[in-house]
């Protein structure tokens, strides 16, 4: 394992860019500065994202999130002397807010983990077969995709009263600027976009009774999204004008733009609550084999396609830690990871893509039950549960990288792990071992970096395509390389155990 040492970044010559990065458990505002080919990033404000259950429905506390954004922009202004070069917003995908005819919000957005979409996939399949839906949109089946949320909401008073639908980052941008738009990379997660035309799939919408007129016009990464309103400037203490730029507003689109790859022969794993593992392509893969492998074709920066599989990700570990903390026992991650590193490798593994793990609650118990169902020993303690989770994630990463390579024809020499999981050295090493490929870990803040780079290019502060933007990242970000070790046959046997069959 070796570490690259970034060169010193010179003092910036202009005001910094603010990246608003909203995740499923927290939001933050980062300041990115560029000068003479260098790039620096620092966090100026972080705030929690706590969903709220009310009336039997799980909601996002969207006004608390917006207040966090305002507080973050105020902190950014203090750190930058009141001047920002621009603002960009990225967030998780699929969820939305509904507006009435006057632009007022019709209730808190519903959380994608809410049960309202239970059984909706079967209803949709009666109108449009899974094969037809995939051929039209190229999107992996996930029960909470926007299309299923909208079908679930049909006939509700809110949807009936709605005159506009804004995805979460577009809703934040609207409150900041007064202007409405639908950013394309996030729109591609709705299962209503044709990835070949990069436009709405009117046939899908018509068949399912979805009114595409609810969506404001599409805009792409780098397009202007307005300027901060006078009342926002007053609230944050910023000096205007401050442009807001549409970035890859799906956080994974920004994260993939922030992958420091040297060429196209790479796979990426954007880690956090979810692991999104795949390759970057010029065109979608829409065949039946791709659909059955549960791969998705989401749109990326500069006309790219993010061909990937959604994996449950560090959600499994986060939920275990939350459960243990609620029980009053030790739940600090560092000691648990150290103990997990000493635990027996691949003793018990689970399918990290199993929908069984989507809902919150009792995660250690559910992991043990999954081990029992597949005839494996249950984890005996917390360290073994953590090792089970990390081995299982590495196996899921292996399967996604191998399948993406096979289905797309893309040659893969290196796996890049970006996002929060880049800090987890055990997970990175296990992924290298499982894939039999070197893993380059970092940057952990790839989404914010990709956000800043798209803004900076739109402003003329940097030039070039993704290759040039990624070269800048390699020059200024600390990366860690993990070489593969161990026996590939052991990983193949563990993968077969999950599948309940012999062979790999």
UniProtKB/TrEMBL annotation:
What keywords are annotated for this sequence in UniProt? ATP-binding, Carbohydrate metabolism, Kinase, Nucleotide-binding, Rhamnose metabolism, Transferase, Xylose metabolism
Gene3D superfamilies per record: 3.30.420.40
Q: InterPro entries recorded for this chain?
A: ATPase_NBD, FGGY_C, FGGY_Carb_Kinase, FGGY_N, Rhamnulokinase
Q: Can you tell me which residues the record assigns to a coiled coil?
A: none
Q: Which residues form the Carbohydrate kinase FGGY C-terminal domain?
A: 267-459
Domain Carbohydrate kinase FGGY N-terminal intervals: 19-257
* Matching Pfam families: FGGY_C (PF02782), FGGY_N (PF00370)
Q: What is its EC number?
A: 2.7.1.-
This protein's superkingdom?
A: Bacteria
**Gene Ontology MF terms in the entry:** transferase activity
Record's family?
A: Belongs to the FGGY kinase family.
Task: State the protein's name.
Answer: Rhamnulokinase family protein
Organism equals Streptomyces millisiae
């Amino acid at each position: 394992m070796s570490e690259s040492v970034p060169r010193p970044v010179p003092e910036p010559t202009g005001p910094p860019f603010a990246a608003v990065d909203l995740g499923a458990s927290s939001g933050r505002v980062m300041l990115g500065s560029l000068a003479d080919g260098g790039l620096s990033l620092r966090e100026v404000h972080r705030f929690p994202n706590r969903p709220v259950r009310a009336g039997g429905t799980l909601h996002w506390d969207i006004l608390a999130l917006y207040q966090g954004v305002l507080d973050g922009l105020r902190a950014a202004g203090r750190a930058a002397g009141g001047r920002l070069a621009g603002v960009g917003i990225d967030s998780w995908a699929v969820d939305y807010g509904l507006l009435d005819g006057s632009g007022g919000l019709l209730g808190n957005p519903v959380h994608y983990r809410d049960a309202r979409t239970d059984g909706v996939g079967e209803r949709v399949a009666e109108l449009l077969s899974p094969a037809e839906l995939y051929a039209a949109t190229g999107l992996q089946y996930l029960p909470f995709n926007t299309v299923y949320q909208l079908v679930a909401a049909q006939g509700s008073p809110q949807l009936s009263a709605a005159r506009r639908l804004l995805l979460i980052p577009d809703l934040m941008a609207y409150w900041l600027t007064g202007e409405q738009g639908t950013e394309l990379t996030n729109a591609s997660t709705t299962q209503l976009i044709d990835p070949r035309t990069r436009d709405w799939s009117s046939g899908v919408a018509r068949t399912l009774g979805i009114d595409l007129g609810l969506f404001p016009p599409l805009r792409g990464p780098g397009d202007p999204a307005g300027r901060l309103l006078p009342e926002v400037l007053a609230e944050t203490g910023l000096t205007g004008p401050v442009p807001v730029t549409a970035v890859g507003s799906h956080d994974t689109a920004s994260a993939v733009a922030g992958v420091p790859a040297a060429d196209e022969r790479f796979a990426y794993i954007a880690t956090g609550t979810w692991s999104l593992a795949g390759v970057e392509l010029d065109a979608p893969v829409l065949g039946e084999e791709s659909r059955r492998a549960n791969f998705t074709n989401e749109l990326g920066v500069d006309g790219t396609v993010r061909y990937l599989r959604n994996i449950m990700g560090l959600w499994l570990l986060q939920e275990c830690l939350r459960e243990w903390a609620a029980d009053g026992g030790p739940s600090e991650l560092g000691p648990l990871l150290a103990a997990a590193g000493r635990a027996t490798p691949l003793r018990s593994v689970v399918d990290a893509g199993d929908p069984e793990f989507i809902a919150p609650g009792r995660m250690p118990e559910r992991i043990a039950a999954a081990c029992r169902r597949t005839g494996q020993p249950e984890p005996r303690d917390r360290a073994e549960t953590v090792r089970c989770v990390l081995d299982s994630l590495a196996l899921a990463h292996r399967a996604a990288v191998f399948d993406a390579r096979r289905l797309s024809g893309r040659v893969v020499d290196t796996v890049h792990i970006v996002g929060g999981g880049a800090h987890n050295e055990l997970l990175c090493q296990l992924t290298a071992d499982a894939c039999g490929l070197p893993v380059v870990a970092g940057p952990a803040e790839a989404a914010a970096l990709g956000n800043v780079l798209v803004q900076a290019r739109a402003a003329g502060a940097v030039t070039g395509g993704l290759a040039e933007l990624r070269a800048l990242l390699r020059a200024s970000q600390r990366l860690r390389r993990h070489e593969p070790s161990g026996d590939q046959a052991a990983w193949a046997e563990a993968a077969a155990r999950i599948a309940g069959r012999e062979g790999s």
